[in-house]
# Entry
Amino acid sequence: MKLSAPIHVLKRRAKALSRTENIPLHAALDRIAAGEGFAAWSLLVAKAAARLGPAELNAALQPGDLLLLGARPMQGKTLMSLRIAVEAMKAGARAFFFSLEYTAADMAGRFRAIGEEPGRFGGRFTFDSSDEIGADYIVARLAGAERGTLAVIDYLQLLDQRRDTPALAEQVAALKAFAAERGVRMVFLSQIDRSFDPAEKPVPGPEDVRLPNPLDLELFDKTCFLHGGAVRLAAPG
# Structure
């Protein structure tokens, strides 16, 4: 059964329903789920998660959105972000991939790992591995970007490594303001703390994001976490 709106929109409707009718949020969530043909909100979420892939994630990102995409190493966050970029390009948008880790040869290999050839997209894909990558640099590179352009930043914590750049919170706030103004969509890859235990919960959450320095995750419009093939998309709040 196809949902009438993305999960984050349905959750927003439930929060509004909870306020207007003065009912508990869980009751509002279940009522929204019933309207979508599910007996409970948990069943709706489980069904949606089962088919959540790069096409759905690309569709969920609205112009100006910031998405935090987090996972432990080797869980597929880089390939997922690249697949999202491919979906964006298939829909006619441009995609940028800013990486402080990968080389151009690495990126070509990642494309082939997902069954794509980077040359297929012509000038719609730009890979940038400059040592100068930071908020100011990204804003300058995207100055002429069209609305709906997708930019991947690989990765969040590396923006915080250089002493000559502003604090991470300032950089993300600057990128959020730029994205809102230009209608650019941004995907930030993120490390997950080693304390995350999949035996306690199947997928990490915002509380598991590794943050050496303070950062308000409410700056992100959506969060997505991966582990063991499971994908969970949500609003950070």
User: Anything to note?
Assistant: Residues 120 and 219 are 34 Å apart (CA to CA).
